Each structure stands twice: as structure tokens, then as C-alpha cells.
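Troubleshooting log. The previous run stalled partway through. Resubmitting the same four chains, unchanged.
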Amino acid sequence: MKIAILALLAPSLGLLALSFFLPYPRASFPAYLPPGPGHPLGTDDAGYDVLSLLAYGARTTLGVGFLAGSLATFLGAGIGGSAGLWSRLEAPLMRLTDLFFAFPRLPLLILMSLYLRPDPLNAVLVLALFGWPDTARTLRPLVAGLRQAGYVRVARSLGAGGVYLLTQHVLPQAWPLVATQWILEVRFALMAGAGLAFLGLTDPTQPDWGVMLFQAFNRTETFLGPYWIWTVLPPALALASLVLGLSLAVLGRPRQLDPRLGG
Amino acid sequence: MKRLFGWLIGLLLAGQGLAQTYILAQMDAGDPNPFAPLRQAGPHWVVTSFVYDTLLWRDAQKPIPWLAESWRWNADKTELRLSLRKGVRWHDGKPFTAEDVRFTFELLKARPELSNQANLVKDYVERVETPDPYAVVFRFRRPVPDFLEQVLGWEKVVPAHIWGKVDNPLGYQGPDRYVGTGPFQVREYRRGEYYLFEANPDYFAGQPRVTQLVLREVANPVLALRQGEVDAASLPPRLAKEFSGQTGFLLTPPQPSYFYTKFTFNTARTPTNRREFRQALAYGINRERLIQQVLQGDGIVASPGGLHPESPWFVKGLPSYAYNPERALALLARLGYRRQGARLLDPQGRETFLSLLCRGQDNARGCALVKEDLEGLGLRVELKVLETAPMEEVLSKGEFLLAYYAHGGTFNFFQNPDFPASVYKNPRYNELYRVFIEAKIPGDRLRAAGEIQGLLTEELPALPLYHPLVQAVYRDKAGIRLFWTRGGLAGRGGPPSFYNKLAFIEPKGEVYRR
Amino acid sequence: MRRVLALLGHSLALALLALALNFFLLRLAPASPFAALERDDLGTVFTAEQRARLEAHYGLDRPLWAQFLAYFGRLFQGRLGESFYFNQPVTQVIVPYLANTAILVGLGFFPALLVGLLLALLSVAFHRTPLEGGLFTTMILLKSLPPYFTAMALLLLLAVLWPLFPTTATSLPGMGFGENLRRLFLPALAYALWEVGTIYLVARGALFSVLGSPFVAYARAKGVPESWVYLRHVLRAALPPLLARITLLLAGSLGGVFFVERVFAYPGLSTLALAAVGRFDYPLLEGVFLVSLGAVLFLNLLADLLLAFLDPRTREAA
Amino acid sequence: MPLLEVQKLSVAFPKPGGYEEVLREVSFCLEAGETLALIGESGGGKSVLIEALLRLLPRESRVSGRAFFQFQGRDLLAMPLREHRSLLGQKIAWIPQAATEALHPLLPVGFQLAEPLLVRGIPRREAYARLVGLFRALDLPEEALHRYPHQLSGGMRQRALVAGALATGATLVLADEPTKGVDVLRKDQTIALFQKSRVLNPGMGLLLVTHDLPFAQALAQKVVVLYAGKVVEEGKAQTFFQGPLHPYAQALLEALPERGFKPLPLGLGREGRGGCPFFPFCPEGSMPCEEGDPPLFQTPKGRVRCWRYGDTGP
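Second attempt completed without errors. Output:
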């Protein structure tokens, strides 16, 4: 299973590395050149070299995905953790999480596009905003369970403060699970990020896999000739392989807390 | 197999004009009622042109009498007398009379928000009189020769006996809101999907060629044409060429559309407030490459004067700002900009940063190319893409430096310079425009037009980039022959379209000869 | 009934909060619907007077708080105001689009639910066999493909390269049932493919958690054939929590429909929403948000009710 | 020909780096109409034996040995699964251990108990009639049939399970720790329950798995003692309860409150070091016990696996 995951993550990382060797994509070639010498993946509708677009696209897509995923995990762990630890906080924080779950994402997405200029930084904020409730909801019950665990009560009786408990006892114990959530959040951010781009809610001049798919989709020629083979497949497969790799990576990891932890 | 079958049926029925449906690919423009101020004027106008009539209409070349049979101006052009066509009936059978015309224009005068051009009616029209049931007299406060085409060619005449009872026409939902005089009646409107129009058998100008006309929203017109899901669509030439030579399909010659993409400067902000700076940037943008990369060659470079070559007031020989980076850098040098390696330093020695706003995702490609051109000169360009509403807000408030967007209406001049009026004020332009509007002798008009275009080319508040080429592809059914209406459907530089209703009726007697 | 009331109360509070948010978020956005009037697509410039009269017509000339009261007043009468762009009551504009989305979701989600459940049962019954391995990876793969890619691939394969289905998702007057089904087939399939993966994984998890319980062994010890053990015992026990989670899944899954509608230009709620954003049509946007919020809240409530009523143990307590 | 003859039944579960032996060559016979008590500390593999007979053990477990069933004299463990499954609920019935979880929480009690009959094609009305009779016999309210498990008390649920087993008319009934979790008060009710079921189905062979000696004494005719997965003693119930042979069995008896309440030596014995697994705790432990694992010696009062009963006699 490990090799499969690595094999699936390889193309994205390879592209990321390649981006440091290729020139920044410029629309300086004839449009729709099929894959061949000079352009291993041909050129797209506006004459950009698909390979360099894909490589530089990896920077934005992976950047936004991993950043948003990490931010979401951080927020989720923080809120979920504290909701689990301090019973007073539990009700308000979980109400907040419910609100985020209840509020439909589509309209919020559109609203964001009105307020925020569509650049990668805003995309990270928006995606993290959508991602954290899932981690909060997963972590809270587990942390609450930990709270009852013997040694945590002992530490508390010795005067250990809440924050100390959270950082010293709870999170280190829950760490393998937080890591799982991190992978899930990154996976969500990647998919949703590409989705944002496809809806035209991100900066289309910033090379990005979702934008490549969006541009290809917007062009009628994509459906008329064989162009989709080198304008649609590369970004889609690059994204799919990365997301698939992350999905498989999650499977092997612990989803519930180790029972020995008195969870 | 399906397409062959569809084609065979078309052939069989073409001759007799039996019960037949013709499907046009057309964007959904909302409820086909006569009044839709906020809705995109173009598509809504095209859809409703089949249901309602105007006093004047246009054939392939020029304005023609329509509901108004003939008209006469008085000497000083402050009075216009029209005699109306007789025997015309509304879809509900009631006769069309002068009272309908009087009511319509008095309504527009009272409620200018009902239609784009209604402000001209409010400003210029003093009174509308009906000496007899088929004669109308417009009395103007000030002479306005262009009124015929700009207003009478545009405003749809509505039945007085229906709208007279409506106190708030803008949101009126009564079923009789669809009553018009046009060649087709509204049979069904399925929101976001199609309009179903049924032929009006006793249309005054001729028998409609098909019994049912469907205007359908389609995602991909080329595929829809191939699979017979629509009978007609307008396409860029590169997509239309696969249909030329195919039996059963007809194509109109490629036509530069009255839409144009343009690059606008904020003349109230440094550094774009300097005329030479704007001209330098104009020389720095490679418009030929833009057409090649974005439209695969399907476009023509637009004239800096802001008018479409087909416009009667178009003036040739204006400086064309052809791509000339050296000239651009020379102009910038004269302003004190120095080139240092790959970067261009402004007179104070700082790097020159420019912000470029781009409206809508479909302009993103063009924006990126312009950004590359300007960066070629050493400028640092930060590009942002905005949706329509936020973009218009920013433009009207002047919170921008450079803007890239597209719109139509290049057949005619505008009241204010073709630019967010709130930012670029040019008294000389307004003076010339007034002369142009109120000139009585055609010669004066042409001269004024020439001066306006010269001024715009020199001052360059905005650099028109290109007009996209469009071409109609349609099935040969029921003898329908589409054509490009020069000047746009509604005469005043209205919506550029191949769907002129004349193509869908058998001309009757003297009214309209093909 | 106590629990149901609590649930209703909770959803109501959430709804009210969202309603207020819905109003203010739009009104404070940096754009106005009349900005487009600066120049319409034909270059015509609306005069200040025309703009003022339009604002008066839509009541935008009044202070914000007055508009807010009017907004809530209308809401209680079940009216959502008038769309600026379409000059028609918002409800009249939204209903056809909402119906289209509902049809698409119906055609896509329920088959996906059945197939997902069936495959989950199969992979639980044939646990640790290549069949389960194959099923599992395909489902994970399906979930990893961006939904619009599957939609585009279907459009390409089954409508363009091999014209089995129409490329246009909109209907035509006088379209028979068969023809309608054909035009809806590809969008529904694309949406189903996006949902089936998630449903399968959720169902598989739920079934496995039940598989270990003692009553399963007892069922087998009663000589109940294996198929009955899965269908009647395992599935029945897993159903309440499973259906609740799947209903929540449906609430969160409207995003998937979004992409499918975008690729097929299907006249659904999301197409309307995107268009309304471009024109910044406040009332229409509010209407779309309310409808999607209502759907999500209803589904959340349904999930809780399902959990309560399907399980006899909680039935009296509810 | 005994109703059930188990020969050298061994069961092992996979654990990292090999298999863990849970049952080692267990053999015993159960006659029709007889009640046999299988005694041993909880966790000694007793329940595993029942699950082995019912072939409900997980696929990866390793089961060897034979279990001849009087019905056709066929080996339960070797016959095809389909045929074995057809015996279950007809000829063989199971009274599961934790009565509370054995019943499906979302299905009515009556349906669950009638299922083995319905599966055989017996019409619904007749199946329910049979259950009603048994419910009345075991003084269970009739409408309990139409209620859900959580609406019944623990005792009622157990009586329902017994009724279910009896309703099948099975000749072999396997009862797993029927007194587990039952408080002392209701223990004699459970004893009465099984005595009544013996009356209702005199011909059945009842295999009682329990660690509750008084319960076994009250019901069983024959006793088999398991320790560390092996049979350490087998014999008639009366003789056993007067004086068990094997030291472990004696320790079990003496641990009872009425017999001195001596604490039971801890631990389940040393696996894998050859000698008698009970050696370290055996009061009479001597030399041979440490090296060799004693075989089952035949003695007039039953068979015992202890060197003391070697050829030298007690």
C-alpha cells in the first residue's frame, strides 16, 4: 500500500520540482499544438505550454491546498480540542460548528467571491473556513473522552491548567489522529480549491490546475477536437492522483483514539 | 442517424411551410415582457423583437418604415409628423392606432426608468399629439434629428388598452403583458430553457415562415448544431468553418461584431493622467497578437476613434497605434522614465507599478496577454479579475488605474465620452457631441464626428482593442435566409444580431421587399 | 416528542440567525445592482434620474434598517421580494430552477444510494476478497476525481465522441418523457458517480461496525441463510445511523450538483445563483440562499428525525 | 451411539508470529436426554468450543478434530457449510451468552425467535402458536412476542431465548454461561428454567458451558473440566461433586463460599513449557508434573489428567 501512495503522490511532487527548471508560462506559442518536440504536453487554447502551466500550477494548487489544510486542521484542533476540554465552552463552540455545517457552502462561496479579491491567499482563508468544522467535530468527542482518562484527571488535580493539559497531554496523545485529520483537510482543500477555480472564483491569471480545467472547459474547441487529451487530462489526472494518494494514505492511519488511552 | 433523419424531415417540409419549428440558439434573457431596463439590453431586445414592433425597423442596410408608414420633419426639426400603417392588429385582435403610440411615449416620458433610451424622450419630447387615429405628432423642446433612429427605432410600442390600466408597469405580471403586434406571439416561456413563440398568421408585414419559433439556451452551440438540437447559432469563424459545405447548412459571411474589447485608463490618476503615458502604453500593446492568441485570428483591430468601420460616421486615416515598443519606450523616456536592465524606473527612480482590473473570467486570457506586453516594457503589472457588478462599482467610483473589459454599441457615439463619465471629463468632447447630435446638415454631422474621433485618438481615455468576428450557421429550412443587420437591430447601434425578424417572414406586397 | 421540539427549536434558531446574516452580508457587499447601469451591454448610460427611480421602485432608497424590516415583513408573508434583474417576484424566478435541481438530485442521488448500499453489502459479505478490494479502490478513485472532470468526461464520451445522448441539458417544448430522460441522463449520472463513492464508504463503515455484534452470530446460529443475515439483520441494524449520516451527506453534497450543472449548463439553482452574483441581484441571491439554507436545515432535521424514529429504542423517548 | 461425540477438537487463533492454542484435543461425549456441564474459569476457551461446533469462528482461526453428530453420524466440522447451516436452528440450537445483546435491537422478539421455523417454511401462525405455548410454559407474558428486546427485562430476555431454542425442537442445545451476569437471587430461577426446559424437551442433549459450579451441580449428569484448553477431568456429576480428582477441580470447589471460600490460585498455567500446566499452583506438585504433561488416566470415578492417578493409583 505504501508504494501505491508514493506512486500517486510522485507526479505532483515531480511537477513541483520541475517548476524550478521551466520558464514561467507565457502565451508565446501557437495554440493547440499537439504533444511533440519542445512541448511534451503540447500547448493550450491561448498558446501556453501545458507542461510549464502544470508545473507552475502545482505551486499554487499544492500551496493553497496544504496551507488551507493546515490552517483548517489548526483551527479545528484548537476549537475541537478546547470544546472537548472545557465543558463550559463546549455548547457555544459546537453551536458555531453546527452553524458552519448548516450554512450551505455554495452561497458562502459566492459571497466570498464578492468580498474577497480572488487571489490565492483569500482562497486559503475561504477553504480553511470551510474545512475546520470537520476536524472540530471529529476531535471534540475524543478529547472529551480523554478528559475522563485517569492520568488527565490526576494531572488536573495536581493543578495543571487547561492549556497545559491541551498542549502537554491531550494533543500529543491525539497526535496520530490530528495527523489523519490533517491529511483529510488537505485533501478537502485541494478538491474544493480546484472547485473554486472551476467556478471562476479564483485569480485566472495565476497558473493553477483548477484554472487549467476551467479554461479548457470554457473553450468549445475542447469538445470538438482531440485537444481535450492534452488540455484536460493532464491537470485532472495530476489532481486526481494526488487526492487519491491522500485518500489511500488516510486509510492506513488510526481513525479512532487508541483504546488504551482510556478514550 | 438522428441528424440524417432530422435533415430529411426538414427537406420534406421546407416547401410547404407546414407545421414546422425552427430553433434558434439564444441566451435566456428573462420574461419576454416589453419593459426590462436592468436586463442586458442585447439579448432581451432580440427576444422581444419577434413579439413587439417599433415605429421604424432596419433591413440589411438601412432603416425602413415599419409601424410608421411615413414621416415628415418641420423646418427647424422641432416637430415630427408620422402617418401609421393601417390594418395592423394587436395579438388580442384589437386594432393598432395612434393612441397606442401616444400612450407608449407619454408613459416613457413619465417613467424614464422603463427603458434605456427613455431619458431622451423625457429630455427632448414636449408633447405627443394624435390629430387622427393613424397620425402622430411629436413636439420637441429642442431639435434632435437623431430621434428617429435612436428612439423610434428602439422603443417597442405597447397596447394602450392593456398598459393603461397598469399603475406600476415595471413589475406587471398580468398574462396580457405579452400582447404585441409582432410576427410571433409568446406561447410559453420556460425560464432558463426556452421561449416558445407561435406564428401570428395575419402579421401586417408578411406570413411567418414557420409556425413555431423556439429560442433555446444551449451550452455548446457547435455540438447542438451538429446534433440537430438547434437550427441556428452565431459562431466565431474558426468554429463555423466545419459547417461550410455541409449539405443542409448555410453560413453568412464573417462579420466584425459591434462588440469590442477595450483597455481603459483612469485619466484622473498618475501616471495615466499624462496623455503621452497613455499613448506609450497604447504602442506597447500588441493587438495583432491578442487577436491571434485569444481569438485564433477571428477578429479585427478596433479603431482608436471608438467607432466601428461600418458606422456611417467612421473616419479613416486616424493614427493606428500599431505595436511599436521602441516608440513606446521613446515616449516614456521623454516623460523621464529610464530603463534600468529589465525594469523601467519612473522619473523619481522608483519602479513603476500598475494595477490592471479585468472584468469577467472570459476576458482573463486577454488580460494576461496585455499584462505580458506591458511587462515587456519593464512595467510591473498586478492583475485582478472581478465579476461584473463589483467591477462596475469600482469603475464608476474611479478606484482603478487600468481596466480591461468589453461591451457593445460601437456604431454610434455616446452622450459622454466612451469612458466611466464620472472620471474623464472633457468639455470639448461634450461640445462636439452636442454639435453632432443637433447638426441639421449631414455634412456638419460628419465633420463633428471626424473631430470627435480625432480627439479620442489623441486624448486616448481608452484604447479600443479588437472587434470579434462572428458568423451565423443555420439549417436551410422554410426558406429562412439569415443576414447581418448593419447598425444593429434597433437602428441606434442596437444589438448586433443575425436574428432579424425579416428573415422569418414571407414579405407581403409593398411593405418590405427582400 | 420532547426531542423533536428541541430539534425544531435548534433549527429555527439557526435559521433566524442565518436569515439576518443573509440580509446584511449582501447589503454590505462592495457592489450595487445598479452599478451595471453605468453602461449596459450596448453602451447605453442610464441617467441619475433613471437610476433614482429604479432604486425607489425597489425600495433601496430607504435606510438600511427600514429595508431590513421590510425584508422580514415580506418573509413572514412568505414573499421574497422582487428580483431587480427579472423584475419578477423572486419565488416565481426560483421555483423552476429549484425544480430542475430537485429533479437532477432525485435522479442522481437515489440510484447512487441504492447502488452504494448494494456494493457496500457486497463488499461486507465478500470481506477480504479481491471483489471487495476492487470495489473499494474504484470507489475511492471515484471520490478522488473532481466532479466536473467526471461530468466533462461523460459529456465527451457519451454525447460528443459517441452521440448517444444530447449535448444540451435544457428541454424543448413538447419533449416526451423519453426525450426528457435522455437529456437528464448524463447530468444525473455524473452527479450519481460523485455521490456513490461517499455513500459506499459511509455504508461500508456502518455495516462493518454492526457485523461484529452478537445478534449476527445468533442469527446465523438460527440457521438463517447468509443473504438474509446481511439483508434482514445487518442492514436493518445499520440503517438508522446510516440513513441519518447519508441525509447529512445529501445536505452537504449540493456542491457536487453545482459542478454538474455548470458543466452541462443545466438550468438549476447554482446556474441561477452564479448569474445572480454577476448582476448582484440582492433579492434573488437572498432567495437562493434561503432555499439552499432551508434545504440544508430540513435535511439536518430529517437526519435527526430518521435517527429517532427508525430506532424503536429512541422512538418513545422522542 | 452418543448424541454428540467430540474427538480431539483443537482451536487456535492467529497472533503476531504464529498461533495461540485455545483448545487442545478436547474430547467428550454427550448422550441424548443427558445434560453435560463444561466447567472452567471464564476465558478458558469454553465459549470457543460452542462457536467451533456452530462453525461461527472467524475464517482465519484454525480448527481441527471431529465432532460426530448423532443425527446422521456425520462430522459437523467436515460437512459442507450449507448442510451444516441447515442443521442449525433445526437439530442444533444455541442459547447465547449475553442475552441482552443476542437479540436484535430493532426487530420484535417474536419474529426473532420464530425465524428458525419460518426459514424452514413453517407458516407464521403455527410458528407463533408454538412460541405462545412455550412462553406460557416459561411464564412469559404473551404480548412480549410483539415487543422489542429493550422493552423486556434481563430475565425475560433469557427466558425468551430458551423458549426460542426449545421452539426449534432441536435435539442438541448448546447453552453458553446462562448464569453469567445473573444476580444470586435469580440464579435459582435460571436453574428452574432449565429444569422446566428439560421437562419440555426430555430427549434433548444439553451442553451447559458455565463456571458456576452450583448451577452445574443442580442440572448436569456428566461433568467435563477444562483447564488451559485441555480436558483435565471428566466424570459423573454426583461422584465429581462429592470429591473431584484433579487438584484444579478441587481448588474450584473449595473456592465456593459454602466450601470454605479459599482463594483460587491465580493464572491460567504455563503454556508451552511441557509440564502439567497446573504444576506451579498444584499443592501436590511433584517431580513428573514439572517435566511431562500427564495423559488422561482412566479411573473408576472418571478420567483425570494428573500424574497422581498414574499406574500407581491414588
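Takeaways: Residues 154 and 186 of chain C are 7 Å apart (CA to CA). The longest helix of chain C spans residues 90-125.
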